[in-house]
Amino acid sequence: YGDRLKITCNLEIPESKEFPYDRYLARYGIYSVCYRPDIVLIEHNQGKVWYQWILRIKREAYSIAEKNMPEPTASLALPVVFGGGQTIPEDITDDFRHTGLTHIMAVSGFNVSLITVLIGLGLNVLGLRRRTSFYITSLIIIAYIIMVGAPASAVRAGVMSLFLLFAVTVERLVSLPRSVLLVLVMTLLVNPRLLRDDIGWQLSFLAILGLIYLHPLIQKSGMKITKGKGRWVIEALAATIAAQIATAPVILYNFGQFSVIAPLANLLVVWVIPILTITMMASLLLTALLPSLGLFFFFPCYLMVKYIFFVVQILSGVEWASVEIKDF
């Protein structure tokens, strides 16, 4: 980032055969591509200084983690906190897809919400005033969203978190459905193409709507069946099933695949993600201060990622783990 380049090539219209690549790029304002260009570096460091600092922090974090965690554990742990995930081997990615766990391979709205809560609690412990805490938390959340590449789920969660924080600051009640609708409208006003061409945006909002409207119904039915026993299991399964039902039409239409074993896989794995997120951040900070103890700090992260890989490997081997819908 910040380098000025001279690029010489023939511009071409993006090819769209099995996948609408032209529409995928158009959502970012890209309408042409070029291959095998001649690139000449003109000058360095021409970008915004604050943005360079954000990206530098991300690069340093990646460097620290990669030195202290072996592959492929680092390739999964880092995207959970900072986004990306392109370095994960394709066969492992397929296993995650079959088990309905691809959502943990990237930054989700839950990460943003979790970080918002942690920062808010930390600032309250320090005794900062509510309004000061709101400003500091807002700046950190915005910087974090930029750092992870501003995926649709993170943007949605970030805007909603800021709304909720503002409501708490001014001592107002918040309607969650109205907040979701407001964020939906705001993001579409900024980029209307998201509605048709951004699958991540569609899945993000469908999932949160499923949690708002379907989760209570499924949870209530589950509690009746079990007569109030195993409450936390019912709640976790209800959340997974609600999100899966809400997002199923988009997943089937775009990918032609539906994970049958996803509720069980999410029940076994999702509880690890918040712990992994917090532990990764603590490990990065501690290793930056005490580099010689990096392997010790990251060892809990390594164990958690190995557990996730173990569950995914076992469940993806089940014959009925996923169902493919041909010519959907």
Would you give an account of this structure?
- The chain is mainly alpha-helical.
- It is built from 15 helices and four strands.
- It has helices at 21-26, 49-68, 73-82, 90-98, 109-125, 130-147, 152-169, 176-190, 194-197, 199-213, 215-226, 231-255, 262-269, 272-289, 294-316, and strands at residues 4-8, 38-43, 257-259, 322-324.
- Strands 1-2 form a two-stranded antiparallel sheet. Strands 3-4 form a two-stranded antiparallel ribbon.
- Helix 4 (90-98) crosses helix 15 (294-316) and helix 12 crosses helix 13.
- The two termini are 41 Å apart.
- The mean pLDDT is 82.
Instruction: Average the pLDDT over all residues and give the rounded result.
Output: 82
Q: Radius of gyration, rounded? A: 21 Å
Morphology call: globular
Strand residue percentage? 5-15%
Number of strands: 4
What pattern of helices and strands is seen along the backbone?
EHEHHHHHHHHHHHEHHHE
Looking at this protein, list some descriptive labels:
single chain, 66% helix, 15 helices, two-stranded antiparallel sheet, 328 residues, mainly alpha, 4 strands, globular
